[in-house]
Design a protein that fits this description.
The complex is a heterodimer of chains A (121) and B (107). Chain A has 121 residues and is an all-beta fold. Chain A is 0% helix and 53% strand.
């Protein structure tokens, strides 16, 4: 059974750096064709893709946020970490991680429950 | 970047109705088009990938079709548990785009 779980602070101050961890089980990010992505959703708004890392450690970022994002993986711990610098109140959102597979034509087939992050002083 | 526009943004329907949601791309896209269902307070759930392939475990009343710039998600006979928000999503050159969502409400 594939599961993913997001963890990180619920509250960050403006200008701080947010660090989120996605801990997963049921698959290996060292297996060819496996990827993990991050997606966020501000309250009442649509989904927004942030970043993706694949089995080969290739990394891809949202065009609008690429200067603020860093994604990395620790295959031995089954974890993917996303950092976002210079947080602003507009970054208040629920942040999700999801598994992405090439056989699924890069669709996000399993999602974590999400973690809510509020940016406020 | 490619833009995805869903229509309608809001849809009111009754149990048993057949409904169709459209996702239009700003330029021709490949079949890397997926549909997700999201209920309040929950994570999105994958319904369709590759424009028309039903994800394992998803009821057969859901179907997807389309090519080029226009794609559709159809629910053949609405069930009470189908009232939710639906999103289309596309991948192009490792950049993902989501549509703005279609909220399906009970009439």
């Amino acid at each position: 059974q594939v599961t993913l779980r997001e963890s990180g602070p619920a509250l960050v101050k403006p200008t701080q750096t947010l660090t989120l961890t996605c801990t997963f089980s049921g698959f290996s990010l060292s297996t060819s064709g496996m990827c993990v992505g991050w997606i966020r959703q501000p309250p009442g708004k649509a989904l927004e893709w942030l970043a993706l890392i694949d089995w080969d450690d290739d990394k891809y970022y949202s065009t609008s946020l690429r200067t603020r994002l860093t994604i990395s993986k620790d295959t031995s711990k089954n974890q993917v970490v996303l950092t976002m610098t210079n947080m602003d109140p507009v970054d208040t959102a629920t942040y999700y991680c999801a598994r992405i597979t090439i056989p699924g034509l890069y669709s996000m087939d399993v999602w974590g429950k999400g973690t809510a992050v509020t940016v406020s002083s | 970047d490619i833009q995805l526009t869903q229509s309608p943004s809001f849809l009111s329907a009754s149990v048993g109705d057949r409904v169709t949601i459209t996702c239009r791309a700003s330029q021709g896209i490949s079949s890397y088009l997926a549909w997700y269902q999201q209920k309040p307070g929950e994570a999105p759930k994958l319904l369709i990938y590759g424009a028309s392939t039903l994800q394992s475990g998803v009821p057969s009343r859901f179907s997807g079709s389309g090519f080029g710039t226009e794609f559709t998600l159809t629910i053949s006979s609405l069930q009470p548990e189908d009232f939710a928000t639906y999103y289309c999503q596309h991948l192009n050159s490792y950049l993902y785009t989501f549509g703005q969502g279609t909220k399906l409400e009970i009439k």
